[in-house]
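Hello,

I think I submitted the magnesium ion job twice by accident. Can you confirm which output corresponds to this input? Input:
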Amino acid sequence: MIITIVNEKGGVGKTTVAINLSYCIAGKGYRTLLIDADPQGSVLKWKSIADNKTFDVKPYPDPLTNLIRKLAKGYQHTVIDTPPGIGDATWSTLLGANLAIIPITPSPFDIWASNDIIQLVRKAKEHNKNLIGALVISKKIAGTLVGRDIRNTLAELKMGIFNTEIAHRMAYVNAAGAGLSVVEYAPNSKAAKEMKSLCDEIVR
Ligand SMILES: Nc1ncnc2c1ncn2[C@@H]1O[C@H](COP(=O)(O)OP(=O)(O)OP(=O)(O)O)[C@@H](O)[C@H]1O
Ligand SMILES: [Mg+2]
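Support: Only one job matched these inputs. Its output is below.
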């Protein structure tokens, strides 16, 4: 399966989901690749900190759909971290992927801003019949009204939503800084549990 993580909005947790999801998929014994399609190079930087070898990481300099398939050859699952925006890199990954995960934070601004990426995924489906789009609630802060109502609000977008919700937790930030997945950094944490749960929903 080829999974691309997309959102036009920056800072919603795309890279965090990409790294931790890749770790959990690899943890199930699948040969897993994470492609860093973001010129910011966050995944490559993360990998360099602790030379993390739990899954393979490749850079993605050229936004061509056929290159994704070439890079993904030999891997059972490939995850792609994309830059914020709805540019060529994002579009070409949508044409090559089976699953587009859209992390969305429960903030009014972020929900309003998600319209373009939803439309882009719909447009990509016209060209790529294999593509499924799904939202994942990301960086949810307990106790906020918008957090409580988020599922009803997102239902209006008429796209699947993962049951797993990713909360705002410092373990994600600390794990990233250490060059680790949250499962390595804090194996018994709630963060580790929610990432494994998201992985279980995807890889069945
Ligand atoms: N669930 C979370 N809880 C707390 N902090 C988080 C969580 N997910 C991500 N972060 C932090 O929020 C910031 C943005 O996250 P991340 O880099 O994963 O987002 P992104 O969508 O990839 O951003 P960009 O669009 O710039 O690539 C980072 O500092 C990251 O450590
Ligand atoms: Mg990122």
